[in-house]
Each structure stands twice: as C-alpha cells, then as structure tokens.
Request: fold
Amino acid sequence: MGDPNSELIESYFRKSFRLHSPEKKLYSCIGNTSRVAKETSVLRDRLGWIETADLAEVTSVFISIPNSEADTIDDIIATATNAEYVFLEAEYGSRTTGLLGRLELLGFRAIMGRDNITYLTNCNAVLRIIEKGVSLGNDSVADFFQESWSHVGTIPENTLVDLCLAMPNNLLVPARFDIAIKALYARLWKTGRAGIWRDFAYYHQALRITGPSWGVVEQDGSGKTGMDQFQAAFHSLLSNLNLDDIPAVPVDSELCAFDGAHRIASGIAMDRAIRIIRISDNPSNCRATADFFRGTAHGHAPCPVEILDEAAIEYCRIKSGLVLILIFPSVASEQFVIKSLSKFGEIVYRTDLTLPPQAGDALLRQVYMGHGWTKDTSEGSGFSRKVKSCFPFSGHRPCALFSSIPVIIES
Reply:
C-alpha cells in the first residue's frame, strides 16, 4: 500500500498542473522545512521532477520565509523568471497577507491551499518569439497566416509583426467570450458527453457571431454554411495534432484575436500550443463579449442565459488568475465599485443575485470555507458580525468574474 498522504499531495499537484504544463520539470526551494520536504519528495519521487539550485531555470519554486521578509519575494521572482508555479508555506496561525500581496503584484494567483501551503500559478502570458519585427507583407508571414489573411488585408503590408508561439488559454480574453462557448462544446465533444446540450450551445453562439441571418453563414469568405459544415470544420481541428497544419491566429497587442476562435478553442481542448501573429499597432475590431451575447446588436434575441452561465464556468476552468467579486447589499454605490475595478482589468461576466441575510450567511460560509473563525456563529462572534455588515437587509447585487490586465512576457 502506498502512503495515503503522498497520494493526496500527488493529486493536488496533478490538479494544479492542469492549468499549465511546464516543459522543464525543475524546482527549487527557498527556506526548506519538513512540510516542504514532504511536498517536494512527492514531486521528485512520484512525478519525476528534478531539484536544482539555479533559480533561473526552475518552473516551480517552494518558498518558506517569514511574513516580515515579503520584500525578498521580488528578488526571488526576478531571478526565477521561468517559474510557472510558486508554493508558499506559512507558519501555522500566521497571516500571509504581505507575502501573497507581493506575489499577486508579480502576476501570481492562488489556486488552492492546504496544510498552510498556498499553491499559486503565474498568470502572465508567455509568448515564445519565433521571429520579431517582420513586415506583414513578408512571404514568411503569409505562410504563417494561410487562411487568416483576409481578416487583416486592410492593414498596410509594411506593418511590423511578431511571429510567436503561445498556449491558447492566453488568448481567452473578455473581448472574445465566444471562445469559452466554443471551448465548452469542444470539451464535451471530445468526451462524448451532453450531445444535445453542446449542439444547442454551439448553435446559439454561431447564430449570433455570424450575424442576423438564420442560416449560420460564415462571413470570412470560407464558404461555410449551415451547422453541419461549421461542426465538421471544428471537428477536423479537434482531431489534428500537427501544429504546422493549423493556420496562425492574428492577435493584437492585448492578445485579442482578429480571427481563429475555433483554432483557439481546439487548442484549449487539445492542450496544445498554437502559432500567433501579433500585430501590436492595430487593435482587433472583433468583439464578442458576454454583453454582446446578452444584447440584440447581432440581430437576434439575447442568447439563452443558461449558455452564458455555463460558458462563464468554462472560462474559469480554462483561465487561471480570475477573481470572483461579490458586491454585497451593504455597498452604497455599485457604479463606484465597477469604475474602480476598471482601472485594473475587465469584467468577464456578471450575474445579479437577490439574497436575504439568511442566504448571505450560507454564501459567506462558502466564501470563507476552511477559515477557523467561521466556526463560531454565536451572537457577537466575528462571523455573525461579518454577515450583518455585508447583509444588513435583503439586497440585489451583482456577482462578477473579473480578469486582470495581462502582463505579457516574451522569451
């Protein structure tokens, strides 16, 4: 029989590594302790990772330092530039606000916590440069583009672009919420699940993306008409493992795609990198936000809300670093909160909830699950005061999925 605790730690690692798949299985430890040693032994002995003292090479780093030394986090991450994961250990009962705050400023977000160790993933978008500063009219760019050329044909040929390789989850941005719906379909199709539901969701997004026609007709000159042709082309992408067969996706400086949402969604479902052409000086005019689907500008009634709700959950499955924001009834100005948040990123999706204080109690138990102070629910306890301050009365307030402005790292 294996060690049950080691098996549990291994399962936590495997769940975490679904967000990224580091090519280099190298890790390093800053301030090793017995608990960190247990974690790293599983990483080494069960998952085949290798320890190194060279921070510049590691893709995972274990940090165990006092909260008073939070400033040293900057130096560690400045050296560990390839780190996709940080595992932060804290002393039992201590506050890690300073340490976590520094890591968040550097682009890391918490995935989960266990045994006073917080698992964090790097949310910065990493682009691998194949060729930088190439003229758009260059033959090598045309070979990269293939069928996507028509979507950037009005951009001057002397425009300089970068040919890059990226993981497709980096291209899931609030402006292309449609990719989340396509990725939901792709995941279900790959696993052979929920056939009626996935077709329903895919049809309704395609209907609105392609415009006011009821026939689902592609507008890019490809000639695709009708659901059968759309799905056949998508299934072909989901069955092709050869990167060179798939045209590059043109994106702007904020990684919003001009074209290629199906290629991005298939890359997400297949967990494979995709080629992109970054056109930094020209913003993409292709916008399909959640609000686009909620509205009628596409010539149809609003998209069924159950599709959008499921797509928001799928967005969370795909994209690390998202923040779920709850605006409680006690907040005086919802508009002020939204305006303040817009300085730091974009709202991906929002839904409105009406909750009485009793439901607020249950919600806060879920929000603060695992925190010891929530166990005391007596009158005057910290938890009961928290409920009263957030839910003094029944209220109608939004719940929003928030995406910070991406930091793009080139390598």
